């Protein structure tokens, strides 16, 4: 039986179980719903509408109608709306955090951090909205004058993941609204309640109806995604998720040549050189590898450690993870929660078994826990070798896999041996090496002596098959703008 919102929220009206379209709370035309379950307990917490293609098309049309007027609002007006949305998020941090943990499983401390991080994008882009500039250009013809101006691209389809159900929406919606676009947000099926709570706060902030629309679906996710990528009204799609799904969405979007920004899968190398401060490196590894039980796209997936400090660093890591407390995310003492669902558990288990069968050594963990069907022990694997699944695929789980290396070149070659390139980390006290390695790594983001690299001021995105485009920072708003050239002849 679902728990009543008032039993765990200060403001029970933040728990919404209908979609938000054109300023109204609506169900699917079919009346169908799907269950949202708590991964810690597998108990249903709510039901949300199962939108289909027709529901989605209706939401897109409403967003288009809103765009016609919203695009004409002043930059300062858009800034004030985003600022108010930010303030409401900050006022409701605790309730938003509890909703995230309830449907996502991450510990409350992580959820609170996410809410503040998510809100920071609304604050950041409220400040960017009035700073959209064009240029004056010297034309070749002396009798002509040439300028450029930036305009909103149009209605945007935003497809968000479940692991950061607040931050991955605001990181997209913030710049879109700042630019003057309207949006249709496809909430993650595993964690839609957070997206709907954000929609409620957008409503309270006074954002005009139709500018922000949030829709939900589970069984119809593929069909809804296809509408967002093929409907000609949608001019831009922003997606965060896996590389295979990104490739499919890109193919579908080609039918109407949409503007795209994709933040896809990662396989982050984490390099510890022999001269590194091992305490600093360990703190960086804990922050990078084990946050929300390893279910982040930028978490360390391959830990490369110089042979001179290899055994010592593994021992330090094991001692650190022994202090973790795994359990229900709602418990304040929990440091690490469950994985999102059974498929995630199966993948982690498969990766561990594959590594062990090929010679890896389990130093800690390596098995499911009796806490519930979605819990897997924090795992440390040593003596990894090339070709093991855990080093080739994105594990997305609490598995730290260690590889020894002997030279800087070997470490760089191992780090770059991947089809994807989202984030990379390394630790060294040698300033010359820091520049050499940072420039040599084939990734979109590098952490040098730091394991947490997310910041609203930082451009977030990857290279190779990790996607393209940047979110956050001064570059993030450009993803939702187009450049118009205006040439005027002087008679």
Describe the 3D structure.
- This protein is an alpha/beta fold.
- It folds into two domains: 5-264 and 467-485, Aldehyde Dehydrogenase, Chain A, domain 1 (3-Layer(aba) Sandwich); 268-456, 3-Layer(aba) Sandwich (Aldehyde Dehydrogenase, Chain A, domain 2).
- The chain contains 14 helices and 22 strands.
- It has helices at residues 53-70, 75-91, 93-104, 108-128, 167-179, 192-204, 221-230, 243-253, 278-289, 310-321, 342-357, 389-392, 408-416, 431-440, and strands spanning 19-21, 24-26, 33-37, 44-49, 135-137, 144-152, 155-159, 183-186, 212-215, 234-240, 259-263, 268-272, 300-306, 361-364, 379-382, 399-405, 420-421, 423-427, 445-448, 463-464, 467-468, 481-489.
- The strands form six sheets. The protein has a seven-stranded mixed sheet, with helices on both faces. Strands 9-8-7-10-11-21 form a six-stranded mixed sheet, sandwiched between helices.
- Helix 1 packs parallel to helix 7.
- The relative contact order is 0.14.
- The model has no long low-confidence stretch (mean pLDDT 97).
């Amino acid at each position: 039986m679902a728990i009543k919102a008032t039993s765990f929220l200060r403001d029970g009206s933040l728990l919404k179980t209908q979609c938000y379209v054109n300023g109204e709370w609506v169900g699917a035309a079919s009346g169908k719903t799907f269950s949202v379950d708590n991964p810690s307990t597998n108990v249903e917490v709510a039901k949300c509408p199962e939108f289909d293609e027709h529901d989605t098309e209706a939401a897109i049309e409403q967003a288009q109608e809103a765009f016609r007027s919203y695009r004409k609002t002043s930059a300062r007006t858009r800034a004030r709306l985003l600022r108010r949305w930010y303030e409401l998020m900050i006022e409701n941090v605790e309730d938003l955090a509890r909703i995230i943990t309830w449907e996502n499983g991450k510990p409350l401390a992580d959820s609170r951090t996410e809410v503040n991080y998510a809100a920071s994008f609304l604050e950041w882009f409220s400040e960017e909205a009035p700073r959209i500039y064009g240029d004056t250009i010297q034309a070749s013809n002396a009798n002509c004058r040439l300028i450029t101006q930036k305009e909103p691209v149009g209605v945007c389809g935003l497809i968000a993941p479940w692991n950061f159900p607040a931050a991955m929406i605001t990181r997209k919606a913030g710049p879109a609204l700042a630019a003057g676009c309207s949006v249709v947000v496809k909430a993650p099926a595993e964690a839609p309640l957070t997206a709907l709570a954000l929609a409620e706060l957008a409503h309270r902030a006074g954002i005009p109806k139709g500018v922000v629309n949030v829709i939900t679906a589970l069984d119809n996710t593929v069909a809804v995604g296809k509408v967002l990528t093929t409907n000609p009204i949608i001019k831009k799609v922003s997606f965060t998720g896996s590389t295979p799904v990104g490739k499919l969405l890109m193919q579908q979007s080609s039918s109407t040549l949409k503007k795209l920004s994709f933040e896809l899968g990662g396989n982050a190398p984490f390099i510890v050189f022999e001269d590194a401060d091992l305490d600093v490196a360990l703190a960086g590894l804990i922050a990078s590898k084990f946050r929300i039980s390893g279910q982040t796209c930028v978490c360390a997936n391959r830990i490369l450690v110089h042979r001179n400090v290899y055994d010592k660093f593994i021992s330090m890591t094991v001692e650190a993870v022994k202090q973790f407390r795994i359990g229900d995310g709602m418990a304040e003492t929990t440091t690490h929660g469950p994985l999102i669902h059974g498929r995630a558990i199966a993948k982690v288990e498969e990766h561990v078994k594959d590594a062990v069968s090929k010679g890896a050594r389990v130093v800690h963990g390596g098995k499911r826990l009796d806490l519930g069907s979605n819990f897997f022990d924090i795992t440390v694997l040593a003596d990894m070798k090339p070709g093991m699944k855990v080093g080739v695929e994105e594990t997305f789980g609490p598995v730290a896999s260690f590889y020894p290396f002997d030279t800087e070149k070997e470490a760089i070659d191992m780090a770059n041996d991947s089809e994807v390139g989202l984030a990379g980390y390394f630790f060294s006290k040698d300033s010359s090496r820091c520049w050499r390695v940072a420039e040599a790594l084939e990734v979109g983001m590098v952490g040098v002596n730091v394991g947490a690299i997310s910041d609203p001021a930082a451009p977030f995105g990857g290279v190779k098959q990790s996607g393209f485009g940047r979110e956050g920072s001064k570059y993030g708003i450009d993803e939702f703008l187009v450049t118009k050239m205006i040439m005027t002849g002087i008679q």
